[in-house]
Amino acid sequence: MLPNDNTPRADRQELAYLPVPFPKAPPKEPRFAALRTWWQEAWEEDGVLHAMWEDVLSAPEDGFRYMAPWLRAVLMVAGVSFVVLMAKAAGEVVLQGLHQLLTAVPKVQVGVDTSSGVFAVVDQPVRTYIAQHSTGLPVAASTVYTLWLLTGIVGLVLGYLSRNNGVRAMWTAWGTATGFMVWTTAPEASRTVAAGLAGLAWTFLSAFAMRGLTLRRRVVAGRPAKVTVKPEIHVPVQPPAVEQHPHSGCPFRD
């Protein structure tokens, strides 16, 4: 066992204290060096940004159909966003105007003789019917009357301009409802005449609302009609061959 003796002796070698050096940290790269390197490589001839810039420069010559797909997608998204924003703004204006119109509607008297002339034959029964059957609704009777007028005007104008079958169906339903209200509310003695005048007025206006409506098949001038041709070949059935006896034609038979 070695003695625990710290006394310096001649046969003992003293080791000096050697400090342990810490590992050196790797040198830090300059800030944004990687980003700067990517930016330089992207603008080289085969880089991403250089190719995109070439697509932008060639877009006027290529047109919308042959331009780069990413550029066409960006333009489509921008166009759709612009249309949505414009539609939203226009919708807010229309709703605000409609709200102001419907707010001022209750000042209109319903069920009272406020019209005169031939128009009163249809208008007064409609006003009376709406006033009698709109009790308990969350909207005023005058608001219902205004919506009835707007429905007829929209059906007449859009039916004349667009020739849409849905608008024409709305116009037909509006005329049927008007005729029903006139027939129900008009005095019994003059009910037939009032309903007849309402029908004549609606038929006259239908000449504009249902302009171009026809049950015949439309053929555009200069365009040949579509004719379906199905070529078929009928082969007549041949009768079965009759088997002849080998001595049937011989005069000398057994």
Summed up:
With 254 residues, the protein is mainly alpha-helical. It contains 7 helices and no strands.
How far apart are the termini?
147 Å
User: What percent strand?
Assistant: under 5%
Taking the sheet with the most strands, its summary is: none
The pLDDT mean sits at 77
Alpha plus pi helix count:
7
Low-confidence stretches: none
Could you spell the SSE succession in H and E letters?
A: HHHHHHH
Computed over alpha carbons, the radius of gyration is 47 Å
Question: What is the tally of beta strands?
Answer: 0
Counting helices, strands and paired strands, the structural category is: mainly alpha
Q: What global shape is seen?
A: flat
Q: Considering DSSP H and I runs of 4 or more, what fraction of the residues is helical?
A: 55-70%
Overview of this structure, please?
This protein is an all-alpha fold and 254 residues long. Among the domains are: 34-104; 109-209, no CATH class. It has helices at 33-42, 48-66, 69-104, 119-133, 141-162, 165-185, 191-209. The N and C termini lie far apart (147 Å). The model has no long low-confidence stretch (mean pLDDT 77).
Q: Which terms summarize this structure?
A:
about 250 residues; mainly alpha; 7 helices; about 0% strand; flat
Strand and helix layout:
Layout: H1 33-42, H2 48-66, H3 69-104, H4 119-133, H5 141-162, H6 165-185, H7 191-209
